[in-house]
Amino acid sequence: MADLSSAVFARVSPLYDRVKRVIPPPEWATFAEDVDAILELKRSRNAVVLAHNYQTPEIFHGVADIVGDSLLLAREATKVDADIIVLAGVHFMAETAKLLNPEKTVLIPDLAAGCSLADSITPQDVRLMRQRYPGVPVVTYVNTSSAVKAESDICCTSGNALKVVESLGVERVIMLPDEYLAQNIAAQTNVKIIAWKGHCEVHELFTASDVRQLRENHPDVTILAHPECPPEVVAEADFSGSTAAMSDFVGKQRPPRVVLLTECAMSDNVSVLHPDVEFIRPCNLCPHMKRITLKNIRHALETGRHEVTIDPAIAASARRAVERMLAL
Ligand code: 13P
Ligand code: SF4
Does a structural domain hold residue 261? Predict the structure, then answer.
């Protein structure tokens, strides 16, 4: 038994070297066996793990093959050459991967990993918006169900929302369901944006007074905010962008001190890549993202659960909206 566990530790130790600044040794000791088992299961099942930037470091740096924001995960999902995709993220991300890979098995380790934005709107709501604003195209954030995507003209992510809105060449668009993302994009374009009332339960908690307090406590700090934050937060930040854009900003600008106004795991994952940058960490946890663990990723690979399926009646329309975005 002692030999077995020392063999496991030896196999995963190169991975630990990457994350040791953010995972203390006793914690890593509880992860090592699952990391080792997942690496072997991926090989034997011809599977890949796609992980969102909000996944914890033992997943993000330990077992993921592809990591990124929603846009990159959707794009990379079209190139995967494996039989099984395990989506370490939330349900809409797994649905997007399945839409783009109808022939592959897509697994989500916990079916309850949802999203407050996806829950804020139904297909019927989209139909009512179309009736209310006839002829106005519907741009839908990927943080929605496939059924809502199927009612939409085109999807967007936080990484390409401005480009998508301006690509339509119209004066007005309906942009669903994130009210703050819609307002933050409206501030950057002449296109008139009709918004919905959805909010991200993680980003809506940041306030402009948090930003001011941070500047008072740390005068040299650089503040980055996700565009799902309220507009007054984005207005007071130094930069706003998708999770990938925030990570790129830190990599390119190397600010001595930074705050990422977003989900907590982002600072851990980005700090591993940039040990010279100091991360100040007021952050909020996404309870949905945190449902994904090494244990349930391992269980998904061992049992094939939970397989993501899309209702065939809506799949083609939903896929069209996602592919139209990816074609831009
Ligand atoms: P990104 O597309 O910026 O990664 O955001 C996804 C998300 O869920 C943010 O809350
Ligand atoms: Fe949804 Fe917000 Fe969690 Fe992202 S952080 S998955 S938008 S609830």
Answer: yes
The two structure tokens encoding residue 63: 């077992």
DSSP 68: E
Report pLDDT digits (tens) over 206-255: 999 999 999 999 999 999 999 999 999 999 999 999 999 999 999 999 99
Query: Which domain, by its residues, includes 171?
Result: 116-199
Residues 11 and 110 in one domain: yes
CA-closest candidate to residue 321, choices 78, 142, 168, 159: 142
Below-50 pLDDT ranges, the chain = 1-2
Which of 91, 143, 249, 325 has most ligand 1 atoms within 8 Å of its beta carbon, as the pocket-test mutant? 143
Last residue of a domain, one of 147, 164, 199: 199
Distance of CA 239 to the CA centre of its chain: 18
Cα 202 to ligand 2 centre (Å):
6
- Residue 116 CA to ligand 2 centre (angstroms): 6
pTM of the model: 0.96
